[in-house]
Amino acid sequence: MGYLRLSGLLPLLTRALGPVITYARDRLPERVLQFGSGMLLRALCDAAVDTANRAGTHAGRVAVVQSTAEGAARSSALNAQDGLFTLVERGLSGGAPLERVHLIGAISRALAADGQWNVVRDVAARPEIQMIVSNVSEAGFRIDAPFPGRLTDALHARFTRAPDAPPVFVIPTELVPDNGPRLAAMVDELASRQDRPQAFRDWLKARVRFCSSLVDRIVTAPPPDQHSALEAQLGYRDALLTVAEPYSLWAIEADPAELRAVFPIESSSVLFAPDISFYRERKLRLLNAVHTATAPLALLAGVRTVREATVHPMLAPFLKQLFEEIIPATDLPADDARAFADQVLERFANPWLDHEWRIIATNQEEKFRIRVVPLITRRAAPGLALAAATHLTFARAPFESLGEAARIPEFAEATKRWMAVLAQDGVEAALAHD
Length: 434
What we know:
The protein is an alpha/beta fold. About 50% of the residues lie in helices and about 15% in strands. It is built from 20 helices and 13 strands. It has helices at about 5-10, 40-55, 70-80, 115-125, 135-140, 145-160, 180-195, 200-205, 225-235, 255-260, 275-300, 305-310, 315-325, 335-350, 355-360, 365-370, 375-380, 380-395, 410-425, 425-434, and strands at about 30-35, 60-65, 85-95, 95-105, 105-110, 130-135, 170, 210, 215, 220, 240-245, 250-255, 270-275. The strands form three sheets. The protein has a six-stranded parallel β-sheet with strand order 5-2-1-6-7-8, sandwiched between helices. α19 (about 410-425) crosses α20 (about 425-434). The longest helix is centred in the middle third of the chain and has 24 residues, at about 275-300.
């Protein structure tokens, strides 16, 4: 029986399937307003809230705001499925395969920012809402993008209608350094530009806690054949079926006691700490920078996924060389950095995740500037020069886009040599010379 016929026979995932959630969802208030409905927030934030609810800590439910046209299908699916979705964890642990299946019930509903903004403002003004979480990508984390303006307006609604409500914690998860203070500065600037009263800006400082956070989990949409096989195994259709690696980390920078009192989701994978710079630097340099440095090289070599790169005869050694070059360019303890690098390589080799380089290469130029250039300025090295050359070739970016790195004479010379090799002989020849 083909998948299309089989899928028509399977019921849609809804609460009508039976007592699939072990806690009384409807009795829990909405306590989290979440900007974004993508896989990462579902597999990290929503899964963490669900785990806490199952443990009896009453973390509450999540109202999701869909802000983009691309997210419309996800929000419709969330509402059709009563906020339920399936999270499948698949990966390697110490070289051994590991698989776990979770039904996540933390989401209450999805709201569309364009058509239901008044409802979003109503939710933001409720005193029981004490967390606002976002993931709008690096490109959307700018003062001229829609999200900061929407957040400012939602907070103003809270200020107007419930000024004495408990403090609200705003936790951005975008992979941007110091994302909490940066978002706070954008909101303050927008409040000033919009001629909001000074009392509102004073209220922001007194009643809103902007917390930096760091998220680390590789999440992918399963390809159609895997999706259909998983649905057949589960016995129901799930348009939001999400596959993630077992590894998960969400580090939130705040006063742990203050945050714990209103958002009781701490676990082995959710950390509250007054300073998360160690976790941010470790992930930014030893996972994200390696991704961004390798993506153009892999794409130009015709390699589709990260997993395929880990067994490629030339890309696999290049990945290991990058780690050897990057670790000394950080302030991380060497032993800890090498242990994390080994773990990252195992995560990259996950046989169940199709993590595509084309997706990793989204917003490549901005990512390279944030993630890789600071490493080059600290320790220019041959592998990073090849990475810079393929980045410039792939992104068709000017040499000056490398910023300070472009002004390091030896590095600039090496990068231009690699660009000449790429132009004349191609990426395979460059890898063979490396």
